[in-house]
Amino acid sequence: MELPIRIRVRRGRADADRRRAAWPDGWPEEGLVAVSTHGDVGRGLEGLAKISGRISGAIESVIEGKPDVVRLALTVLLAEGHLLIEDVPGVGKTMLAKALARSIDCSVRRIQFTPDLLPSDITGVSAYNQERREFEFKPGPVFANIVVGDEINRASPKTQSALLECMEERQVTVDGHTYGLDGPFMVIATQNPVEMEGTYPLPEAQRDRFTARISMGYPAPGAELEMLDVHGRTSPLEDLSPVARAGDVRELIELVRNVHVSTSVRNYAIALVTATREHPELRLGASPRATLHLVRAARAYAALEDRDYVLPDDLQYLAGPVLAHRLLPTAEAQVERRLPEHVVAELVAHVPVPDPRR
Amino acid sequence: MRLRLTIVACVATLLGTVGLYPLYESGGWFGTGCGAILVVGVAGALTRRFRVAAALCPLIGLAALFLYLTVRFAAGQALLAVVPTPSSTARLGRLLGEGWHDANAYAAPVPMLPAINMLTSTGIGLVAVLIDFLAVRARRAALAGLPLLAIYSVPAAVRQQTAGWLAFLLSAGGYLGLLVSDARDQLAGWGRAVFTARWSAAVPAGERPDSSPLAAAGRRIGLAAVAVAIVLPFAVPGIEPRGLLGIGGNGGSGSGKGSGSITGLDALNPLVSVRRQLVREGDAEVLKYRTTDGGAPDYLRMYSLDRFNGETWSIGPLRAGQDGRVADKELPAEPGTAAIPARAVTTNISIDSRVHGLDVLPMPYPPTKVNIKGDWRVDPRSLTVFSTHDSAGGRSYTVTSIRPEPTYQELVTEAAPPDSITSRYLAVPDSVGDDVAKLAAQLTAGASTPYEQAVKLQDWFTKPGNFTYSLTTPPPRRGNALRDFLFTSRTGYCEQFASSMAVLARILGIPARVGMGYTAGTQQSNGEWLVRTKDAHAWPELYFTGVGWLRFEPTPGGDGGQGSATVPSYTAPQLLPGAPGSDPETQLPTTGSGSGSAQSSAPTVPRHRTDTLADSRAAPGAVPESHTSQLPVTWLLIGLVVVLLLLTPVTLRALTRARRWRRAKTDVAVAHAAWDELRADAADHRLRWPASETPRATGRRLTETLALEGAAAEALTRLARAEERARYAPSTERLATPREDVRLLRAALRARASRRVRWRARLFPPSATMSLRSAGTRIMDVFEWLDVATPRRRRPT
C-alpha cells in the first residue's frame, strides 16, 4: 500500500525498529491485522471512539493519570489544530508530544528550538547540487505529519515565525516555490512559562495559530508512584507502537467535520468570543480565527464524547484551553493578577447558554 | 447652565400645578401657567449662564415673571407692549386685587376671569421661581418639594378634598424626577461608580459615569412609596371617606361634574364626619339657638339619607349650581307644601366655635331663607345647606323655616305623590325579604291611607314593651341587621328605629328617607336652647302628597330612650283638627315628651344617658346597618379577595403546567415541556437556575445538591439529555415517561426542601409569580429608559 505521506523525509532508524518490533512479520497487509482500522472508521462515531480509545490508551500508558490532557491533545489532533503545551520542566510535556506522535503511524519530526536556530533549519533549504548543476530543495523537519517543537520560546522570533505559514496554510514557501504539507499536520510545541531567561515569548500571531494551550500539571501521588515503578525499569515510550495510521486519522478528521453544530451553539461561540473583546480587563480579545478554532475543537471533542452534535458544554469546556492563550490582559488586570483564564471562566459563568426557543 | 436640571425642575413645577384643576371651571389657566414656568425657567438658565450671584437669581426670576405678566395681562398699557410702565403696573396691581377678591368671593370652581388667571399665573410663577432657585441654583432638590407640596395642597385647603390620584401621581412623579435628576448630577461629580457584585459592561472612555444601577434602586423606592401612598388609603376605611371600603359612603356618585354645577360632599359620609366630631367633642355643646317657635321647636336637620341598599342608608351627592348660593335669597320651595296651613319660624343659631369640620348647617326643616356669611349653597332636592370650603364652627346664622300644621283631611289624602318623589324615595332592594314586607302589611292592617299606616308604624315602635332602647346593643355578627332588629333583638337606638321605620314605610309605598341632625335640645333658663352632641339623632321623614316631608318619631323618648326626642303633634290623629273623634283633652302619647312648654323646659327634660359607648354609637343620624352587618360583609369580601389573591399563584401554576403538557405534541416539545416544568419546580423550591448553565451541567448540579440516587437520578439524566438533544442536536429522542420523571424529581425536590420552602412551593409557587415580577421589571425598565435616554444622547462637555 502507499504510504500516507507524499514527501517522505528520511525516517530515523528508530522508526523502522519500532515498526519491526510491533509487526515482526513486516508491515501487515490490509485486513489481516487487528490494528487495521479502516473498518472501524467506516462505522462512523463508533469507529472513531474505538480508534481514539486506542490512541489515548497508548498515550496513557506513557503519561500516567492525565486523561483530560490526553483527550485535549486528541481533540486538537482531530480538529486539525496545533497544540501548545505550557508547563514547568519535568512534568512530561515532551513525553506527551512524543507519545501522541508515536501512537500514530506517521512521520514525526522533532525540532529542538535553540537560540541559534534559523528559519531555514525548520523549513528546509535549497542546496546547490553540483552533479546536476541546479538547486535542490532539501525539506526541513517541518515536512512531517507531526512536528514536535520543543521549548519553542527559546528560538528567536525570527525563527519562530518560520512556523507561521506552515501552521496556518499548511504549506512552505522557500525560494519562491511553495511546497504543500500533507495531512494530518500538527505542530505540538512545548514551552516553559517559569524560566524566562534567554527566551522569546511567542508573538500574538504565533499564539493565535495554536488551537489550544494546555498545561500538564503535577501528577497525583498515586500516578507518580506508578510512574516511578514503570519508568524505573524501562522507558514505556520506547515500547510504544503505533495503534493508528495517518490515513485513519485523516478519515477521522473528515468524520469530525460532519459533526452537527446548531445555529444556537454557533451563536453561543460568537457570544463567548465577543464577550472577550468587550471585557474591560482585556486589552486584546479573541480573533475570528479563535471562533473557528473553538467550534472546530468543539466538533472534535463532541465526536470524542461519542456525540454527533456539539453542546454548549463542549464550548464551555474548551473555552479555557482554546481562548485563554490568545487574550492579553490590561495592565490593571495584570497588577491584580487576573489571568486570562480567570476572565474566560468568568465569561463562561455569565454568558447565557443558548436556548433556540428564546 | 444645568440645562437638564432646569428642564426637569420646570416639568416638575408644571406637573405640580396639574393638581389645581378642580379650582377652575376651564383650563385657560394652564396655558398661562406654562408660560410663567417657561419664562422663569429661561430666566434661571440665563442667570446660570452668566454666572449671576446666587442672591440675585430669585430677583431676576421675579423680574422675568413680572415682565411676563405685563406682556400677558397689561400689554396695552406697557411701552411697546413689553416694557412695564406705571400704568401697566397699576393695571397688574388692580387685576391682582380683583383676583384676590374674586377668589374669596367665589367658591371653587371659579370662572376663568382674567383676574383669576393673573392671580393663578402669579402664584405658579412664584412657585417656579422658588423651585428653580432651590433645586437648580442651590442644589437642594429635596427642599423644592415644599413649594410643590404647597401648590398641591391648595385644592385640598380650598375644597377640603384632595385632587385625584392621577394628579397626585403626576406631582409625585415630577418631584421624583427632580430628585433623580439632581442625584444623578451629584453622583456624576464623584466619577465612575464601582460595582463589585456584578461585572459591569465596558464603559467606553469619556462616557458619562454610569449611575443607573444606583438610580434604579432609588426609582424602585420612589415607585413603591408613590404606590403605597395611592393604594393604602383605599384599603383603610375612615382616613379617606372616598375609600374603597368606605362604610355607607357613596363612592360611585361622582357623576355630577357638569359645567355650572359642582359636586360637593358627593362622597362625604355624614356618619364618619359627624361621628369623628362627636368622638372628639364628647358631650360638648354644639350650638345654641333662639327661636320664635315657642316651647317645642322642631328638630335641627342636617342631612337626609335617601338611598337604601338593603343594609345601609346613605346620602346621595349634594349638588348646587352657580345659583345655589343661599345668600340673600329665598331657598327653593319644597315640592307640594303650598296648600297646607303653616307658620313661619325664625331661628337664630350660633354654632359653638369649638366645632370643627361642620360643613352642613343644622336647621329646622323646611328652611325658606338662610342668612349666613360665606359661600353656602343649597342642594335643591334635599334643601341641605352646605359648603365646600367653609365650616360652620363659630358662625351665627338666621334661618326662616316653615312649621307645617296640617289638618287631618289634608293628611289622609290618597292622591299619589309626584313622580320626582316616587322615583327617588321608594326604592327597596329585594334583599330586604318578604317577611319584612309581611310584617309591614300586618302592622298596618286596617289603615286605609298612607298617613294612617305611618301612624300605626310609629305606634308599633313606640308602644311600651315592643322595643327596648339601648345604646349598648351588640351589633349582630351576621345576617341582616334590619331583620335582626325587627324580629329578634328588638333592641336598638335611634339609628335602628329611624331606618327600620323608613324601610317599612317605603315597603308600604310611602316615600321615606332618614333625617339626621339634632333634636331640639334643652331650653336654658334664659330662653335659649342648647344642643349638645348627645342630642344627635336620626328620624324617619315621610312624604305625604300636598303636605310634604313630615318627621316621625319611632324612637322612644324620655328617660328610657333618646332623651330630648319629641313626638310631633300631627302624628296623633285624634289631636288633629278635623280628625274623627278628635278630642283636645286627650293626652299625648305616653312616650313623647309632649309639646307643652312646661314639659320641655330645661330642668324637667331627662338627659340622655351617658353610656360609655354613647360616643361611638350615638352619632346623629347614624344608620343601624352601617356598623352592624356591614362589617362582616366587608370582612368577608376582604377575606374573599385575600383568598383569591392567595390562590392566584397556585392556579396560575396549575394552568401553566396543564398548558405546557397540552401543547407538547412533538418529541422536541415534550422534552422542552418536561425541562421547563422541572425548571419551574426548581424555582418553586428556591433552587437557583443560572442562565449560563447547560442542561447537562444543571443535571449534574441537581444530582449533587439533591443527592439523587436510583430512579430519580436516571430520570434527571433522561430529561437533561432529551432537553439538550432537543435544543442542539439534529434529531431528538423520545421521552417515554416525561410526566412521571418530572413528578419523581418534584418529589425529590420536595424531600430535600425545608418545611417552609415546601409549603411555599405548594401555596405560593414563586415560578407563578415570576411573570408578575417580570412585568414589574418591565415597568422599571420604562423608568430606566426615561432616565437613561437623555444622557445617552448627550456627551459631557
Automatic annotation (TrEMBL), chain A:
ATPase AAA-3 domain segment(s): 82-211
Q: Which species is this record about?
A: Actinoallomurus iriomotensis
Which SUPFAM superfamilies does this UniProt record tie to the protein? P-loop containing nucleoside triphosphate hydrolases
Q: Which Pfam families match?
A: AAA_3, AAA_lid_2
The UniProt entry, under Gene3D superfamilies, shows: Magnesium chelatase subunit I, C-Terminal domain, P-loop containing nucleotide triphosphate hydrolases
CDD domains in the record, alphabetically?
Answer: AAA
Please identify the protein, giving its name as recorded.
Answer: MoxR family ATPase
**Recorded coiled-coil stretches:** none
Where does the signal sequence lie? none
Which Gene Ontology terms cover its molecular function?
A: ATP binding; ATP hydrolysis activity
Domain ChlI/MoxR AAA lid, chain residue ranges per copy:
275-335
UniProtKB/TrEMBL annotation, chain B:
Residue ranges that the Swiss-Prot or TrEMBL entry lists as coiled coil: none
Going by the UniProt record, its keywords in alphabetical order are: Membrane, Transmembrane, Transmembrane helix
Transglutaminase-like domain residues are: 486-556
Keyword Membrane in annotation: yes
UniProt biased composition (Low complexity):
589-604
Disordered: annotated span = 554-608
Write out the transmembrane intervals. Answer: 29-46, 53-75, 115-134, 141-158, 164-183, 221-239, 633-655
Q: Per its UniProt record, what Pfam families does this chain match?
A: TgpA_N, Transglut_core
- In terms of superkingdom, the source organism counts as Bacteria
Output the InterPro entries linked to this UniProt entry.
Bact_TGase-like (IPR052901), Papain-like_cys_pep_sf (IPR038765), TgpA_N (IPR021878), Transglutaminase-like (IPR002931)
Name of the molecule in the record: Transglutaminase
Protein source organism: Actinoallomurus iriomotensis
Organism ancestry: Bacteria, Bacillati, Actinomycetota, Actinomycetes, Streptosporangiales
